Amino acid sequence: MATFGARYSRWAPFAPTQADENKNAIPKYGAVKTLGELNKLVDEITTIEGGLDGDDRKPIQAYAFSKGKVSVDSVFVALKTAAEVLGADVDEANGLAFSGEDQAPYGGYGCITHHQSPNKVYWQALFYPMVKAMVPAGETYTSRGDTLTFATDKLVFGVAEPLCGKYKIVKDFDTEKEANDYIDSLFSGTGKVPGLTGAAAAADVQAQESASPSKGK
């Protein structure tokens, strides 16, 4: 599989109330923000492992998700958006100010990537249902020399496991629009997730019941 594109970088905070209280659905989200044009995304997932020895071998070996980190490099992220993601203070007159007491909100992050296999070209939607921005590690600023060196705006998110247990969602699509729409549907609560019977599935059941003849008639 060859990857040659990444775009549609989106983030949204958790809904103000009852955001992550359903073990059969991913969390609920507030207003979705665009995190600028996506330059690069680096996904790092850490696992824990353990095992039990017996008869000079290891008959039991187990691995589990521990934590994750997603580094998002963007061409430009507006200060107002960055402040909301990081939990910092911002206003148009005085700019962005960081504090040791800043509390970044939990939210969800999604984007799409472009791939090519030996037989087809396709789009892949990536979605992390529960993320939280980390404290910025700092920037490097350089003077102009014989060449122009461009730097990206970086946001780093810690990846956590929501109540439903799904910390990362991946789905392939034939078109870019289908991948974009799927990301949007996960933020809006209408998208379906493998292994979950959340709001979207419940809506389908309700629609089927409404369409079917009432019992006893």
Polypeptide structure, described:
The protein is of the alpha+beta class and 217 residues long. It has one domain (2-211). The chain has helices at residues 79-86, 176-188, 199-211; strands at residues 2-13, 33-34, 38-54, 57-74, 89-91, 95-97, 106-116, 121-133, 153-159, 169-173. Strands 1, 2, 3, 4, 7, 8, 9 and 10 form an eight-stranded antiparallel β-sheet that branches. Strand 7 and strand 8 form a beta hairpin. It is globular. The termini are far apart.
Q: How would you summarize what this structure contains?
A:
With 217 residues, the chain is an alpha+beta fold. It has helices at residues 79-86, 176-188, 199-211, and strands at residues 2-13, 33-34, 38-54, 57-74, 89-91, 95-97, 106-116, 121-133, 153-159, 169-173. It has one domain (2-211).
What does the secondary structure layout of this molecule look like, with pairings?
Elements: E1 2-13, E2 33-34, E3 38-54, E4 57-74, H1 79-86, E5 89-91, E6 95-97, E7 106-116, E8 121-133, E9 153-159, E10 169-173, H2 176-188, H3 199-211
Antiparallel strand pairs: 1-2, 1-7, 3-4, 4-9, 5-6, 7-8, 8-9, 8-10
